[in-house]
Amino acid sequence: VEQVFKQLFYMINAVALNNLLLRKDVCSWSTGMQLRFNISQLEEWLRGKNLQQSGAAKTLEPLIQAAQLLQLKKKTSEDAEAICSLCTSLTTQQIVKILNLYTPVNEFEERVTVAFIRDIQMHLQERNDPPQLLLDFKHMFPVLFPFNPSSITMDSIHIPAALNLEFLNKV
Description:
With about 170 residues, this protein is mostly helical. The chain has helices spanning about 1-20, 30-50, 55-60, 60-70, 75-85, 90-100, 115-125. It has one domain.
């Protein structure tokens, strides 16, 4: 059950983050607020079902950071440093794309300046990020089956001759 929810939450993360990276109309402060609220509801649901150890919440980390990125101030060099230290699960390319797509929804907000984006790129240039922008939503985590030892000892097993397993020897 834990592995299923980890996979499901990864898919939610990948599809939501990819939509954020591809659609200018959703890159705004209010979308960041809405995403953060929805993610907290998912995390609360995991706690309520006692699934917090499944790793499902950790798969949402890039989406959480993207939502926070949309909500942070984006003006000064200190803001750039804060963004760089906060967004460790996002690649440089993803951070820059979100900043480029950021769209103010009212007259109190301002667009992200080109100088600020260059400042972010300078701070992040030593990162060795993969050159991918979008997440692979078809990624599958390996299925792990728990080992349950048998109470039957190997020397008490009788192998029927009808199975034609003469090459097996008891030691």
